[in-house]
Specification:
The complex is a heterodimer of chains A (420) and B (267). Chain A is α/β, with parallel strands linked by helices and 420 residues long. Chain A has a single domain, classed as TIM Barrel, CATH 3.20.20. Chain A has 13 helices and 11 strands. In chain A, the strands form 2 sheets. Chain A has an 8-stranded parallel barrel, surrounded by 8 helices. Chain A is globular. Chain A starts with a strand and ends in a 29-residue tail after the last helix. An 8-stranded mixed β-sheet of chain B has the order 1-2-4-3-5-6-7-8, with helices on both faces. In chain B, helix 2 crosses helix 3. The chains are: A alpha/beta (420), B alpha/beta (267). Chains A and B meet through helix 9 of A and helix 6 of B.
Chain lengths: 420, 267
């Protein structure tokens, strides 16, 4: 089992009017950055980095980062900058990027270079996820949404080649052209860092991941549609002639642990009290229908079962209350004693080899997050490892998703072959 | 459809290595009508009236409506080059060419590539050049019905507005809009709806009789783009229709057709 920590790193401005239990909902791409306070931003960036360092100390295997653009709900507009810092200031945990938004990069050679540098500085701790990005990403970086899927696939192929084949070589593709590909850096891990693919909606993406034997990470969806969507991966794997296992699947959802049940509930309610987050059920803000309909961004037909129950800003219908989410396990909060059996239920239901606890988000304070991280480290993580062992849930770092074979122990000197 | 469907003939036309939807009506010299960024709007009264005195060709561009897309087309100039080959295959010459909005940009690109192919050129609120004042309305950041409402100056007095933008569009219409937006996105996302080079190539139209038509209340393509077209095409004239938005052919079809036929019939 691989256990990661995640927060969107919200821009928490109590004076903004859109923050707290009575904060106004935000319509996506409608807040001007004239209200941005860099002093506050500075404090928050440092806080979120501190929390990642503490998460490592408390025994998390993975420090997950993500990236969104032009929005207060996620400060990770240049996620690789945060990852670079973590590469130097942490020691053991993997730095899990879920992920770089491939289609918005006009020059993916920068990604080849940046990620190889992060992998070397971290001594082989990079996990490099890709995403296709949502409407705001395409709009912010002016990447043509109608070519999103083509650019994603070509950028992936290009990056893998640049990481694995000696240069110089030429790349004359449909969307990317280079006459001299010879980056003066190579990934520390061989053949290259593990790729992961997080998602929610696109059937094309999960089929692609299954064909490439890349672990698919489902993001904060309800359990039954998630299981159905994982079945698409299983079915594709069968067609490709292999059996997918827990190493091929990951699941991210909201988990907060606290000292008492009362405090846990009080703090968990803060999940839905930060700046509106289109992906955070219960606080999605006001949908921007034009962003959802950005032409060609995802197939209008080939969608997953999870799409129908995705948050409204993912194209789904539901805006579920805090209570409903507690009811259906998409928010788990409580003391370690009450949280652990609920996590067991999720693990039994979905059988993921990687899990990411989404915590410290919304209106939660630094202290809220630190208490939860401490209790996770002291009680929850050890218990989850035991459950995972009992259920034989193996991570992609224990069993290769590429071959289905066990992977040996990692030594610092010789990074183990991983990757797709 | 604005008028009886029997008045025009619809067919699948195999030209220049592609299969496209084509509508034709009338007899006489050829008039090619190029639709805008949302695809063929339906057979409207302006099609019908124009076909009483000439042969109207109203295709759906590759990638729009039921015309299959062509993978290598990544810019409007690609589409323009393809169209010239299609016109060769159709055996057409001495063509009168009318283009609306994005179709006007396409028409300008085609004419610049081969002015000798055309007898007259009418550009109706074309995109394609970068206005110095104002910005071209972003159709990709707005839903199709919102865009259409913005495109009409006064929809309450516009008889055909409900045909291009019904209160409750059918699922088929919604799908056709999305197909069109996707193809327009492939061709016009960046730079958004203009080519930096076109302005400098428009001088090629010095011997082609060219009319530019603009609505005085166009909120989609700033009228300053019309000025640039007019100043860049030697001998061209520009006609501004008052109290009209971006779709003069829909808002005031009678007045619009009169302007076009007067231009086409002139020496």
């Amino acid at each position: 089992m691989f256990i990661g920590h995640f927060t969107e790193r919200p821009y928490q401005d109590p004076d903004s009017g859109y923050f707290g239990a009575t904060g106004l909902p935000i319509k996506d791409l409608s807040v001007s950055n004239e209200i941005y306070d860099p002093i506050l931003g500075s404090a928050l960036y440092n806080r979120y980095l501190d929390e990642k360092v503490y998460a490592e100390e408390m025994g998390f295997d993975g420090l997950m980062l993500n990236e969104h653009h032009s929005t207060p709900f996620c400060m990770g507009g240049a996620m690789n900058v945060e990852a670079s810092i973590l590469a130097r200031i942490t020691k053991k945990a993997k730095i899990v990027l879920l992920g770089n938004i491939l289609p918005i990069w006009d020059d993916p050679l920068w990604l080849v270079e940046q990620l190889a540098m992060i992998d070397m500085i971290s001594k082989g701790r990079l996990v490099s996820g890709w995403v296709r990005g949502t409407g705001r990403e395409s709009v912010s970086h002016n990447a043509p949404p109608a070519y999103n899927w083509e650019r994603f696939q070509e950028a992936h192929d290009f990056i893998i080649k640049a990481w694995t084949e000696p240069g110089p070589f030429r790349w004359e593709g449909k969307h990317y052209q280079y006459r001299y590909v010879n980056p003066w850096m190579r990934p520390y891990q061989k053949p290259h860092p593990q790729i992961m693919l997080p998602g929610v909606v696109s059937r094309d993406s999960i089929v692609w991941a299954a064909k490439q034997r890349i672990p698919y990470i489902m993001l904060a969806t309800q359990l039954e549609p998630t299981r159905q969507s994982f079945q698409v991966y299983h079915d594709t794997a069968k067609e490709e002639g292999y059996e997918a296992g827990s190493q091929n699947f990951g699941y991210l959802w909201k988990v907060h642990v606290d000292e008492t049940e009362e405090l846990a509930e009080e703090v968990a309610r803060k999940f839905v009290q930060g700046p509106s987050n289109p992906f955070l059920a219960g606080n999605e803000g006001t949908a921007n229908p034009a962003l959802l309909k950005l032409p060609g961004l995802t197939s209008r037909r080939r969608v997953l079962p999870t799409a129908n129950v995705a948050t409204a800003n993912r194209g789904g219908q539901l805006s579920r209350s805090f209570e409903e989410q507690v009811e259906d396990y998409t928010i788990i909060s409580g003391t370690p004693k009450t949280v652990i059996p609920k996590i067991r239920h999720v693990l039994e239901y979905l059988r993921p080899g990687s899990v990411f606890f989404w915590d410290g988000d919304g209106a939660m304070t630094h202290d809220d997050q630190m208490r939860s991280l401490r209790l996770m480290g002291e009680e929850v993580i050890p218990a989850v490892r035991e459950i995972a062992d009992e259920l034989e849930l193996r991570s992609p770092f224990e069993v290769s998703p590429k071959t289905g074979e066990p992977i040996g122990e990692i030594s610092e000197e010789a990074a183990v072959p991983t990757g797709d | 459809m604005a008028v009886s469907e029997a008045s025009f003939k619809e067919s699948r036309l195999e030209v220049a290595g592609a299969t496209i939807q084509m509508r034709t009506a009338g007899e006489g010299s050829p008039l090619l009508i190029l639709h805008g960024e949302l695809g063929f709007p339906g057979w409207m009264s302006y099609h019908e009236t124009l076909s009483t005195s000439r042969k109207v060709y109203a295709p759906s561009h590759p990638g729009y409506d039921e015309s299959k897309g062509i993978d290598w087309m990544m810019q409007v100039r690609d589409l323009a080059g393809w169209y010239l080959e299609a016109l060769d295959d159709m055996g057409l010459d001495e063509i009168d060419l009318v283009g609306f909005s994005f179709g006007g940009w396409l028409a300008a690109e085609m004419a610049v590539m081969d002015p000798s192919k055309f007898r007259k050129l009418a550009l109706v609120a074309p995109t394609g050049v970068k206005p110095e004042e104002g910005e071209i309305y972003d159709i990709f950041l707005n839903l199709a019905p919102d865009y259409l409402r913005e495109a009409i100056h006064d929809s309450s007095s516009c008889a055909e507005f409900d045909l291009i933008c019904p209160e409750e569009p059918s699922p088929e219409m919604l799908e056709l809009w999305e197909i069109a937006r996707e193809q327009s996105c492939k061709l016009g996302w960046k730079p958004y709806m203009y080519s930096l080079g076109l302005k400098h190539l428009l001088h090629r139209l010095k011997n082609l009789s060219t009319l530019i038509v603009w609505g005085g209340n166009d909120k989609i393509v700033p009228i300053d783009a019309g000025r640039i077209y007019q100043e860049s095409i030697p001998g061209s004239t520009m006609q501004v229709m008052e109290n009209v938005g971006h779709r003069p052919e829909i808002e005031k079809p009678g007045e619009f057709v009169k302007i076009i036929t007067t231009f086409l019939d002139s020496k």
